[in-house]
Design brief:
The chain has eight helices and ten strands. It is an alpha/beta fold. Strand 8, helix 7 (212-229) and strand 9 form a beta-alpha-beta unit. The protein starts with a strand and ends with a helix.
């Protein structure tokens, strides 16, 4: 998943190369059609990359303004509030993009420290956090419940490997931990001091089906863990789940619903969407924590 999707008309490739070089020099990853691999389906790959990008830089010119394809990419990005327009000639930008702040690159000499380059990078920074390399640790605890949503731990390992890879593209390193071990074995949890310096996230898959083990061990252990770690909580599953077990956690629960009654393969469309949702949420939380620490909150 690239940070920035670059939309342009093929006749403006030289400009696209300069914009690509500038964005990469600032530490962001980019994707544009030169990144296509032999054998990939052109439209499908462009659609996938556009949906996964955090921002789109569209290069407006008299040539790209009459391109249906460029306009569709720009409209999709505008609707998702991720569009960063730039002009390279005297093109008249019309509806529905004329009211958007547009970086003027007409007199840009390609230098990284010039005013147009700095304006584009500043606009990009407002949309996409710079590489996050926090001093604190990001612990992702996972719990697998007993409703057959997940058949075995290998499924979760594969799923979280994909989440970890996406987060790594932003500079985040995740510490993946079996939450079941902590929940079932309360003796491994001491006081909350061991968690308070870290960002703790609990991802639980499926739902708890009533049984003696759930009532006597799992539910009490989950409440105990929530009191100690104060985790941000994500629920991945097909069914609604009673949140009463987590009322003692000070952070809200975020749901990732899947159509399938079992955890989807991360290579499938549904699985890829779920992976992206989890990774985006983790990056968002890390960014919020970083801002709070910088502001002394």
């Amino acid at each position: 998943m690239a940070d920035v999707f670059i939309s342009y008309k093929s006749q403006d490739r030289e400009w696209a190369e300069k914009v690509d070089s500038l964005i990469r020099s600032a530490g962001y990853s980019t994707w544009w059609d030169t990144s296509l691999q032999t054998g990939e389906r052109y439209n499908d790959e462009i659609d996938r990359q556009l949906r996964q990008a955090k921002a789109t830089v569209v290069i407006w010119s008299t040539r790209s303004w009459v391109s249906t394809w460029v306009k569709e990419e720009a409209l999709f990005s505008r609707d998702r509030e991720m569009l960063l327009p730039a002009r390279i000639d005297d093109v008249e930008i019309g509806v529905p993009f004329y009211s958007l702040q547009t970086v003027d690159l007409r007199n840009w000499d390609g230098g990284r420290d010039s005013a147009p380059a700095l304006e584009l990078l500043a606009s990009l920074e407002r949309h996409v956090p710079r590489k996050l390399r926090p001093d604190y640790q990001i612990n992702v605890y996972w719990a697998r419940f007993n409703d057959r949503y997940v058949e075995d731990d290998a499924q979760i390992d594969r799923f979280l490997e994909c989440v970890t890879a996406l987060c790594a593209s932003t500079g985040l390193e995740l510490n993946i931990i079996s939450g079941n071990h902590h929940i079932i074995n309360a003796n491994v949890i001491s006081d909350s001091a061991q968690y308070e310096r870290d960002l703790n996230i609990l991802v639980y898959f499926g739902t708890i089906k009533d049984c003696g083990f759930a009532e006597d061990v799992f539910r009490p252990g989950l409440r105990y863990f929530a009191r100690r770690a104060n985790p941000y909580v994500l629920h991945v599953g097909h069914e609604e789940f009673d949140m009463n077990e987590l009322t003692l956690s000070c952070f809200p629960v975020r749901r990732v619903r899947t159509r399938e009654s079992t955890l989807p393969d991360p290579d499938s469309v549904s699985g890829d969407s779920a992976v992206e949702a989890l990774a985006s949420y983790i990056v968002f939380r890390a960014f919020k924590v970083r801002n709070a620490m910088e502001n002394g909150e």
